[in-house]
Structure formats: structure tokens, C-alpha cells
């Protein structure tokens, strides 16, 4: 009997064969349109439904003043999630974009209200800089609406090349970031 060759997966990111490593990633969710809490809850649940993703920790929900959006924009709800994943970074990005689409995201002009925004903040120590993906997220280190929820669930958190979340947060205005004690994201 002829044996078939041993199947293996070529990991496009590491270009090594065999098992893909488990990486811990930080994923940020934001919404400032419609049922903001329902959309973030749905987005986190959908991410957890991905076979190669395990949600490890979920922050509280924060109400946040909009930053970098047109005057008069509505406030956001934001939350941050820690996951373990064996997905490649680009497949994880595709998953994030599909979740945005599933919750009604329309890509219009920058700063337009968003039903659901899903950003990859870090994926382990992976660095990316291409047309689709920049890692670490290039603006995360200056965003209170990312750093405050991230610190809550990961006091040792670090943005490679930028520093520890606990240190970065002291250089950021966090006055517009308020925990919503009445809301939570559950699996
Ligand atoms: N780390 C990343 N996480 C998510 N999307 C990214 C990342 N790096 C690059 N992108 C690209 O950004 C595009 C979407 O940008 P989007 O319209 O969501 O930006 P934004 O949410 O308005 O702004 P910001 O990126 O500052 O949060 C995606 O199509 C994706 O290819
Ligand atoms: N408070 C807040 N402001 C933002 C947010 C966000 O999630 N929260 N997302 C943006 C673009 O992704 C731009 N500005």
C-alpha cells in the first residue's frame, strides 16, 4: 500500500511548515451608532465562534468621547478582548473585517459613524506593514479608549516598540473614558 505524504500547513507568516504557534492577540471593539452594546456583544461572540480563536479575557464596556471624528459625533462604546489564536495575522484580519461587515459596517469617509469597528492592536510580537495590515496598530498607543480597557484585563500588557500599557497610559488624556457599570460583554 502506498502511503500518502504527510499533510502539513505552510504558515504564510512564518514560512515554516508544521503546527502554527498560538499567539496572544489584543482586539479592540468600538461602536458609535445604533445598538452599540448589542453590536459589540455580537462581535465578541462571533469572534469566539471562530474555531482557531479562544477568548481569554474581556474588558468592561467604556463610554468614550469620540477622537478624530467630525464635531458633533456621537460617543462610542469601546471594549478590548484578549484572545489566543493559531490564525495567521492576515486571516485574523479577514475575520475582523468579516465581523464588521456582519454587523452592518459601511466603509465611507474617515470619521463617519460606525456600527462596529474591530481593530487588531497587537498579535504577539508580530510586526506587519502592508496595504492591508499594520501591526502593532499604529494609533493604539495614543488612544485612551484602547489603553484603559486593555490595562484592566492585562496589567502586564505591552505594545512592542512602544512600551508597557501601564506607562503609555500616563501620557494619554483618559478623561473622556468612563466605565459603564451597567453594561457587560458575556460569552
Ligand atoms: N491593525 C489593524 N487592525 C484593523 N485594520 C487594520 C489594521 N491595520 C490596517 N488595517 C486596515 O484598515 C482598514 C480599515 O480601516 P478603518 O476604516 O476601520 O479605519 P478606522 O477604524 O476609521 O481608523 P483606525 O484604524 O484609526 O481605527 C482595514 O481595511 C484594514 O485593512
Ligand atoms: N472614542 C473613540 N473614538 C474613536 C474610535 C473609537 O473606537 N472610540 N474609533 C475611531 C476610528 O476607529 C476614531 N475615534
From TrEMBL:
Instruction: Recite the UniProt keywords alphabetically.
Output: ATP-binding, Folate biosynthesis, Kinase, Nucleotide-binding, Transferase
Which Pfam families does this entry report, sorted A to Z? HPPK
Keyword check for Kinase, yes or no.
Answer: yes
Domain 7,8-dihydro-6-hydroxymethylpterin-pyrophosphokinase positions = 26-155
Q: Name the chemical reaction catalysed here.
A: 6-hydroxymethyl-7,8-dihydropterin + ATP = (7,8-dihydropterin-6-yl)methyl diphosphate + AMP + H(+)
Q: Name one GO molecular function term.
A: 2-amino-4-hydroxy-6-hydroxymethyldihydropteridine diphosphokinase activity
What is this enzyme's EC? 2.7.6.3
Q: In which pathway does it act?
A: Cofactor biosynthesis; tetrahydrofolate biosynthesis; 2-amino-4-hydroxy-6-hydroxymethyl-7,8-dihydropteridine diphosphate from 7,8-dihydroneopterin triphosphate: step 4/4
Q: Which residues cross the membrane?
A: none
Q: Which InterPro entries match?
A: Hppk, Hppk_sf
What is this protein called in UniProt?
Answer: 2-amino-4-hydroxy-6-hydroxymethyldihydropteridine diphosphokinase
Phylogenetic placement of the source organism: Bacteria, Bacillati, Actinomycetota, Actinomycetes, Propionibacteriales
